[in-house]
Amino acid sequence: MSESSRPEHREQKERFSGLYGVVIIPDATTVERVRSLARQFAPNAEFQTEIPHVTLFQAQVTDLPAEEVKKLLKELNGLRDKPFDLGKLEIFAGQYIFWNLKNTPELQQAHEATLRLVKYVDAEKLKLAPHASLNLTEKQVESVKKYGHPLSGDAYLPHITIAADSKGLSLPVGVTELTHQMTVESSRFSEMGKNGRVQNLIEI
Description:
5 helices; Cyclic Phosphodiesterase, Chain: A; 24% helix; alpha+beta; disordered N terminus
């Protein structure tokens, strides 16, 4: 699926408030593979990923300057066409199927670069306790308090969400890993939705 066929619109805003993220969009082969796995592993799930992506940053922000986002995306251009290995399949919080990337210094560095946006995270949201049903670890709870997301900073877990369901999901018996090499098509700014869904890819 080409980027031109994804939900996308150009924003003339100078600042953004709401749930936003910085995401990696993988190559078309990986996109189709993820969608195929969603149909295979979770055909009746409440959510099957529509725009497969790797989240570098996601949080409720207030008055995030567009210029700050532009500078960050320019820095992340160096990831374009870089290969990263997908491997482990796991159930996160009982509700999500993750296809994890092998973290690398380059990927961790890219994530940490996005954390400078944390100063724009809604302080009131950081005070809210994560929903108990997620059963987060102590480190993940601390990540929510510090960054507004359970899988940031030291707890960063690069992954592609295949599917999600509040009633619970499981993998077929014996299925724990699927090796695949993805390449980075682009790094994008996105309006985010429920279950980490990319609502709109935003051109600024």
